[in-house]
Specification:
Layout: E1 7-11, H1 17-28, E2 31-37, H2 44-53, E3 58-61, H3 67-81, E4 86-89, H4 105-133, E5 136-140, H5 153-175, E6 179-184, H6 201-206, H7 212-223, H8 234-246, E7 253-255, H9 258-264, H10 274-283
Parallel strand pairs: 1-2, 1-4, 2-3, 4-5, 5-6, 6-7
Length: about 290
Amino acid sequence: MTPRHRGTLLVTGTSSGIGLATAVRAAAAGFTTVATVRDPDRAEALREAAGRAGVDLDVRRLDVTDAASVAACVDGVERTYGQLDAVVNNAGVSNSDPTLEMSTAAALRANLEVNFFGVVEVSRAAMPLLRAAGGRLVTIGSVHGVVGQPFNEAYCAAKFAVEGFMESLAPVAAAHGVRVSVVVPGYVPDTSFGVFPDIDRTTIQAASGPYAATFADYLDRIGNQGWEAAGQPAGEVAEVVVRTLLAERPPFRVPANPWAAAYLDHKLADRDGATVQTLARTWIGRPDSP
């Protein structure tokens, strides 16, 4: 049976991992899916996955760090389909600098450009169309956007910024018909992004100066962590994203597996964001809005 048409969806960062799986799952669920990649030459895995699933994807170039590229892509979607009903902000990069003193301002800015400002730019460009459609804005967050992780300062800073930005935007967007959610995955091993960047341990420890011993302790600790409970395939996260897109009243924050939910509990009493969202709505005179 052909699934019911769910509208037009744009997904960023679909060359691998969660973005690839989300684009394919969303298309199977009935979305007309625009799957964007920074480098079209890296879309082969995406096209192969779509072929195996028997779905069609509209693959387009989009560099989230280039405002002109973002605007051109969103405008092109409107010209082709006449509307945009949902966006999934997925594009992101990892962090490979050992710590503050051993990194540079340029490295921090580069991380923020993709992981934070890229999310903002895509959301800004899409929002007029999402308002017109009463649409959905879903962003892939991270447990490290809530609980800081040693030796991942730049990445955590960007993901904390995404959390704060989206939490602040959500009640205003909701007042104008747009649902905003952040999906928080567990550890996803089947992605080129990964939780920990591929590094030469000897080289990076040598570059860690006075932090070398502490960094070694950190690598040993995470290496022995036992990530079985944390792990989930990219396809499982994609299923959570699609359910969030289709939910009538999606929560603001959506842990993608029980481990992520428990990890958030280290810091959040308001795990799904409902308490903060209810409070924020009173500030804009809409205490009873959904």
